[in-house]
Every structure is written in C-alpha cells, then in structure tokens.
Amino acid sequence: MCDQWMPTIELPLTLEQFHQLPRNPAYKYEYLSGKAYLSPRARHYHALLDLERRPVSEDVEIRQIRLDELAELIPIFCGAFQRIQPYGSLDEPVREQAARQAMERTCTGGDGPLIEHASFVAMDKNKRPGARIGAILITLLPAGDPTEVDNYYWRQPPPADCITHRQGRPHLTWIFVSPLEAGCGVGTTLLTAAGNALLDMGFTQLITTFISGNDSSMLWHWRNGFRLLAHPGSRREIKKRSGKSEW
C-alpha cells in the first residue's frame, strides 16, 4: 500500500537547496548529478493496548459502522490524512482513489476479517447533528508473537468463525477524524467504544500499526495507553529468539 502511493520523487536542485529540504523519516534522501532523489522507506511500527473497560464520552454520538456507508466515509478519510504520508503527497483525485482502495480492502477482509461489532462511526451532536465526523475499523489478525512479521497477515483463509471463537488478536486498522473535529476527543471516544465492545466479545488486547513520520498518530497512541513493540524482524529480536547475546 505505501509503496504504491509513495513513488520516488526527483527534484532538480542545487546541493545547497538539497541540504535545506525538510526531512520526513518516511523517505530516504539522496543527491546525484544535480538532482535530489526521495525514495520511500516507510517503516511500520506496532504497539499493544491491554484493554480495560472505560466510560464512553457522551459528547459524541457513537454507533456501529454499516458497510453500505463506505462512500460517505471517504471524504473524512481523505481530510484526516491529507498531510500524512503516503496520502499527503497525492493530489485530491488520487488521494480519493487511494482512500477508497484502502477502505474497500479493509471492509472486504483484505486486512483480516472485519470485526463489525467493534467498528464504529462517530456522529456530530452539536454543529451538524447526524453528520459523520470519524470512524474506527477493527480487524482480526492471526494470534502469535506480534514481533514476528508473519503474524500480520493470514497465510491461509481465516476460519469463518474465527471472530466468534477469538482465534486471533484484534488490530486497529483505521481510525480517522474530520480535521474540523481533530483534537476534541473524538478519536479517543471511538477507541473507548471499540475497546469496550472487544471486551464484551472476550478479547483482552488490541494491537495497532503506524508508519515512521506520523508523529501525531504516535503521540495519540501513547496518550491512550499503547506500548511500543519491538520492530518485526529486528536484529535484537532475532538474536533473542535464537538465544544469542545482543553483544
């Protein structure tokens, strides 16, 4: 997904201009023969939340998501990620195409079975009563060690009853809020509702993923109690599993 929407960028610049470019950790910066080359190197990080029941704020109306409202959620998705890679460098029509593809993939099981009971839409209660202002989509990943990259996709089609029998670990695949409502607690309210629903289903943990360079997402996860996991495939984890010392 990131590779598709983050092509290499070529910029004719002087060396002085190249050194003045603002850096984004989602890209690798190189300079050759009068051109700057910005290559995507999106690195994914994962974090884990131990679920505990919390009261849901009454300032936001929350209801379970409906799969037939995908089209209405696309503009909110685009607005939420318009300055965040890989969507931030796309023009509006392409960003909409990328958003639609991402949502369709999640809603059709491409990111693991969608846990509809724990996926919610936030509705405005004040300025625009009934208007959608955010959403959270929770999917199910295979159970296993979350520091191993193979546990972030199903190698075989998941059983039809995998959600009912809790044969996996819930994953926060998407959470997005309208820029007009950002910073007002909508995202946290969506997360709280999803966490309570997962507890009702017998799940106790929620895993999440974000890419390097998305500082606002990282800070939001920390404020809400997620703890960072070792990067899948890291040398330290490989040595730990093999029983070798790090040094």
Describe the protein.
The radius of gyration is 20 Å and the shape is globular. It has helices at residues 2-5, 15-20, 70-80, 92-107, 186-201, 215-223, 235-242; strands at residues 9-12, 27-32, 35-40, 44-50, 61-64, 120-123, 132-141, 169-177, 205-211, 227-228. It contains 7 helices and 10 strands. It has a 7-stranded mixed beta sheet. It has a 3-stranded antiparallel beta sheet with strand order 1-3-2, with no helix packed on it. The two termini are 35 Å apart. By secondary structure, it is of the alpha+beta class.
Set down the secondary structure blueprint:
Elements: H1 2-5, E1 9-12, H2 15-20, E2 27-32, E3 35-40, E4 44-50, E5 61-64, H3 70-80, H4 92-107, E6 120-123, E7 132-141, E8 169-177, H5 186-201, E9 205-211, H6 215-223, E10 227-228, H7 235-242
Parallel strand pairs: 8-9
Antiparallel strand pairs: 1-3, 2-3, 4-9, 4-10, 5-6, 6-7, 7-8
Task: Offer a concise description of the structure.
The chain is α+β, with helices and mostly antiparallel strands and about 250 residues long. It is built from seven helices and ten strands. The radius of gyration is 20 Å and the shape is globular.
Rounded to the nearest angstrom, the distance between the terminal CA atoms is 35 Å
Percent of residues in helices comes to 25-40%
The average pLDDT is: 86
Rg calc: 20 Å
Summarize the biggest pleated sheet.
Answer: 7 strands, mixed
Uncertain segments are none
* H-E order: HEHEEEEHHEEEHEHEH
Number of helices: 7
Helix/strand class: alpha+beta
Shape: globular
Sheet-strand content, in percent, reads 15-25%
Number of strands: 10
* Sheet with most strands: strand arrangement: 5-6-7-8-9-4-10
